[in-house]
Amino acid sequence: MNENPLPSVIPDKEWKKIQRMLSKRSLWMIHFCTGCGAMEMPPVMTSRYDMERFGIIPMATPRQADLMLVTGYVATKTLKRIVRVYEQMQDPKYVIAFGSCPINGGIYWDSYNIIKRLDKYIPVDLYIAGCMPRPEAVMDAFLKLMKDIDEGKANGWMRYRKYYDQYKRNQMRIFKRWDE
Amino acid sequence: MIVDWLIQAGLVALYLFLAVVIGLLFMGIARKVTARVQNRVGPPVYQNFLDVGKLLAKKTNIKHNWIFDFAPLFALAGVLLALAYLPMGGYKMLSGEGDLILLLYIMAIPALGFALGAGASANPNAGVGVMRALMLMLSYEMPFLLVLLALMIFYNTASLSTLLEKQMSFAWGIVALPISALAADLALQGMMMEKPFDIPIAPHEIASGPLVEFGGKYLGMLMLYSAGSIVLETTLFVDLFLGGGVVLNPAHYGIIAYVVNYLVWFVFIFIVWMIAVLINAVFPRFRIEQAFKFYWKWPTVIAILGLIQAYIMSVFMGVVP
User: For an engineered disulfide with B221, which of A51, B72, B143, B152 has Cβ 3.0 to 4.6 Å away?
Assistant: First the structure.
């Protein structure tokens, strides 16, 4: 059940360094606002903690985005939408999971319709612990993600391609069918 | 013969390349200025170069149909063609008699390409966005055409190069026809889709409208297109009303005149762009019918007043530039 591929540095071509350098400086973000984490985004975007100084701007559609924020608990119904949004994003793409709920279920750990680990269904590059993480923590996570991208550690999208079957198997265990 | 042709082609390529670079720089400056107005730090001014580089380096896996693939190229090529018809700093790349009217048609090509791609994506948001864009175009073209009519009556020409010469020898359009210049600047705000009129690409209502299905390399091309169109629209205003930035006559001063004129042109389009950006930074968004009503009411009235002024000056007072 819990066979999740471990995050490791997947070897990449040398010239992709330029791409990583560019993509860490202009992360376009789509925030999938589930749960209470969405409330932490406005301070991060606006003048107090202005994330645009790092080139991170909110985008309206997943097609244009590089970075997805899952901001809170993930219900089984929401998971399908998250997977669809994630698959519509263009590679390279990164995921940040917010708060304790996507890590281990948080306060919903024994709920019948909340999944416990997001990482089993889509690859997560970075977790922010806390219930809820403060905007400082979010900014810190962005900086950490930028560092990881630069070092080639944030390679969730490569993991998703490499272990696609296992991710799909985990997802189908939840969904039963795709078209509802 | 062939060498002349090559030099000419190289110069045109250089000018178009510089126009796109200036457009990207202007987008970055606009983001920085907007951030400062909103009491933020804002991204560095070269942010949009990073963005375009990132977008063009992304893997792109969007499949709709060949029109969708073709549309960003169509838009970029259309905007480059329109830029080639505009004198930038007094340098004429392509020109001919009546190119002011021709330009109006050419300026519709990039928007059309954009609409084509958005329509081909079959996304309802894109459809709504395109419909709004065409409606907005219908609204700002009315005052803008009246302004062009006033200019054509006053300067008695439909050729951009003759217009520049006459503005240099007589008086700039903004001095001779200030009322028309005001109407043109109001129309320009809608043409550039800046804040009271960013109805077609409203990100919070219709998920960035026509752009909704574009991502990766397609979006990179469209970003280059919008960079070009910023320069196109500001240059149009500068050429019509500020003499195209021509302060030295190239016939007398040669190459120095081109360099100085280019710098003056750059300062002028920067000022025109900054006016639009500062309005953009503080205003909310109109609804489409409000924008339509606004354009067919105030700028149209102002443009008609400008037309009357131009007519009286040229016909009754005998002012002939």
Answer: B72
* Structural domain harbouring B142: 2-316
B41, A26: Cβ pair inside 8 Å?
A: no
State the nearest Cα–Cα gap between A129 and chain B, in angstroms. Answer: 27
Residue B151 carries which side chain, given as an amino acid letter? L
pLDDT, residue B90, reads 73
Is the distance from CB of A129 to CB of A100 less than 8 angstroms? yes
Judge whether B321 lies within some domain. Answer: no
Residue A1 pLDDT > 50:
no
Residue ranges of chain B whose CB lies within 8 Å of a chain A CB: 31, 35, 38-43, 47, 50-51, 53-54, 57-62, 203-204, 207-208, 211-216, 219
Domain chopping of chain A, boundaries: 16-175
SS3 state of residue B91: strand
Q: Mutate which of A28, A31, A64, A91 to test chain B, going by most B C-beta atoms within 10 A? A: A64
Alpha-carbon gap, residue B300 to B18, rounded angstroms: 34
Q: How many residues does chain B have?
A: 321
Report domain A16-175's class.
alpha beta
Domain membership flag for residue B44: yes
| pLDDT one-digit tens code per residue, B64-80 | 888 888 888 888 888 88
Close Cβ partners of A148 (under 8 Å, ≥ 6 residues apart): A125, A126, A154
CB B283 within 8 A of CB B257: no
Size of interface A-B (CB pairs under 8 A): 85
Question: What are φ and ψ of residue A69, in 5° steps?
Answer: -105, 125
- Domain count of the fold of chain B: 1
**What is the model's pTM?**
0.86
Three-state helix/strand/coil letters over chain A = CCCCCCCCCCCCCCCHHHHHHHHHHCCEEEEECCHHHHHHHHHHHCCCCCHHHHCCEECCCHHHCCEEEECCCCEHHHHHHHHHHHHHCCCCCEEEEECCHHHHCHHHCCCCCECCCHHHCCCCCEEECCCCCCHHHHHHHHHHHHHHHHHCCCCHHHHHHHCHHHHHHHHHHHHCCCCC
**Chain B within 8 Å of A49 (Cβ-Cβ)?**
no
SS3 B88: strand
| Complex ipTM value | 0.83
Question: Cis ω on the peptide bond leading into residue B284 (within 30° of 0)?
Answer: no
CA–CA gap between residue B258 and residue B250 (Å, rounded): 6
Cβ <8 Å between B54 and A22 = yes
Out of B39, B50, B61, closest to residue A47 by CB: B39
Residues in chain A with CB shorter than 8 Å from the CB of B59 are: 90-92
